Amino acid sequence: MAGLYFVIGFFTFAPHVLIGLFARELCPSKPSTAGGFVKALGQIGGAFAGAPLMYIVATYDWKAAFYLWIAAGVCAGLCFLPLWSVKPTKAVAVKKKTQ
């Protein structure tokens, strides 16, 4: 069972990190704000996802819930599609603090 948890965590953590990194790359002047905004929206979505999912499972079944997740994943991918070829405007130099 621990191996299964490892595999699930491995495959879900990478997209989680890449979405935050993508937001930081699109807004190089304020990367922390962009990353925080994306993470905050993800937390809000996670907080409110339980009630609609519970309603779908109670009204229909788990098969309908899985179809909903598949449709949501496809929609999310389509939302990112226009940003596929976007490149940062310029690199922002970071000064290292010396002690």
From TrEMBL:
Q: Which domain of life is it from?
A: Eukaryota
Output the lineage of the source organism: Eukaryota, Sar, Rhizaria, Cercozoa, Chlorarachniophyceae
Q: Which residues cross the membrane?
A: 6-24, 36-58, 64-86
This chain belongs to the protein called Major facilitator superfamily (MFS) profile domain-containing protein
GO molecular function list: glucose 6-phosphate:phosphate antiporter activity
List, in alphabetical order, the GO biological process terms annotated in this UniProt record.
phosphate ion transmembrane transport
What's the protein's topology in the membrane? Multi-pass membrane protein
Q: Which InterPro entries match?
A: MFS_trans_sf (IPR036259), OPA_Antiporter (IPR051337)
Q: Which UniProt keywords apply?
A: Membrane, Transmembrane, Transmembrane helix
Question: One Gene Ontology cellular component annotation?
Answer: endomembrane system
- Tell me the compartments it is located in: Endomembrane system
